[in-house]
Design brief:
Length: 356
């Protein structure tokens, strides 16, 4: 190994020893807990993850508990964290581990990647942090650190760029403390070598960082054009009968499958919010709306789109509803509404109904 790489290892680990954040998943060597934390941290900020992680581990402390938990319980624990396929894949993987692997999470990158929802990065993180094996990681933070450290100036969307960074990450990895080193790289990218305005004066690697020495830190990594997220306008109805509210479960094989929601849908071109809801109720429940009263407007940003949700108190004809296009439907008392998992925008309606 080159002296340059040895310097990086030494300086970064010494810095990590002194400055690492006290995070709950760093206080355990339990492979299951580390796996859960790594899945939750995919595309989600640390401060957001902490309460979800603590609640999850308290409720489902072992692989067998997760393997045998009902999906609705899992979705409720995940409610608001987004990317619900992550929770479903945790459940699928836990069942495989419980039934086929004696309840033991595999330790190698290859075997970990055979499980649903575990890619190369997550497998490397689990293998190195939980089992101390020499496996590299490459997330957005690590990419940025390596790009600046070595002045790697290639388009971030190309496989050549990815392969180059994976190779750098692997070459840098020490035999001793590979998990700590991987966490140190991620920590540096999250707290010091940040996008936009990195805090170079606090960086332990500034004296050997090529971008810093060339005064070109902000040129790395090369910027990618960010696509503007799609705007979607949606109407939803609160229908209450005999002190119970109507909710329906989204189809399990669709977007946010298995979650519950209030009836409604996307506005079509030229429609008003009111017209949209009347049409959606007619299509979904096969009854006519007789009265609407707007109660709130909710704005929520998902990864691929931004939703403006207009919510109405809604009175329908006194005839039998015949819901279609959903997994199941229920009339639920307001006191029980919080037991069901809802998409993030709908959670705000639940809060409005249960806390007023």
């Amino acid at each position: 190994m080159s002296k340059h790489n040895q310097d990086i290892q030494r300086k970064l680990l010494a810095w990590y020893n002194k400055t690492k954040r006290d995070l709950p998943w760093r206080n355990t060597k339990d492979p299951y807990s580390i796996w859960v934390s790594e899945v939750m941290l995919q595309q989600t900020q640390v401060k957001t993850v902490i309460p979800y992680y603590e609640r999850w581990i308290k409720t489902l402390p072992t692989i067998d508990k997760l393997a045998n938990a009902p999906e609705q319980k899992i979705l409720k624990l995940w409610e608001g964290l987004g990317y619900y396929s992550r929770a479903k894949n945790l459940k699928k993987s836990a069942k495989i581990i419980y039934k086929e692997m004696n309840g033991k999470l595999p330790n190698t990158v290859k075997n970990l990647q055979n499980l649903p929802g575990i890619g190369r990065y997550t497998a490397g993180a689990i293998s190195s942090i939980a089992f101390g094996l020499k496996a590299p990681v490459l997330d957005g933070n690590v990419k940025r650190v390596l790009s600046r450290l070595f002045c790697i100036n290639k388009n971030g969307t190309t496989s050549a760029y990815e392969n180059c960074l994976w190779e750098k990450a692997e070459n840098l990895l020490p035999v001793r403390r590979p998990g700590d080193f991987n966490q140190a790289l991620m920590e540096l990218g999250a707290t010091v070598c940040i996008p936009g305005s990195p805090i170079c004066q606090q960086c332990p690697l500034r004296t050997i960082c090529k971008a810093f020495l060339k005064n070109k830190v902000n040129e790395f990594p090369p910027s990618n054009k960010i696509k503007s997220s799609k705007k979607i306008e949606v109407s939803a109805g609160i229908i209450i009968k005999n002190k119970k509210v109507y909710i329906q479960q989204r189809l399990k094989n669709g977007l946010m499958g298995g979650l519950w929601e209030f009836p409604g849908g996307k506005r079509e071109q030229g429609e008003s919010s009111e017209e949209c809801l009347k049409r959606e109720i007619k299509e979904e429940l096969r009854v006519n709306v007789v009265n609407l009263n707007k109660v709130m407007t909710i704005k929520h940003t998902y990864t691929q789109f931004r939703v403006t949700l207009t919510v109405f108190n809604c009175k329908i004809q006194k005839q039998q509803i015949r819901p279609g296009g959903c997994e199941q439907w229920k009339w639920v008392s307001l006191s029980n509404l919080k037991k069901y998992p809802f998409p993030a925008a709908n959670v705000k309606i639940v809060k409005y109904l249960t806390e007023k």
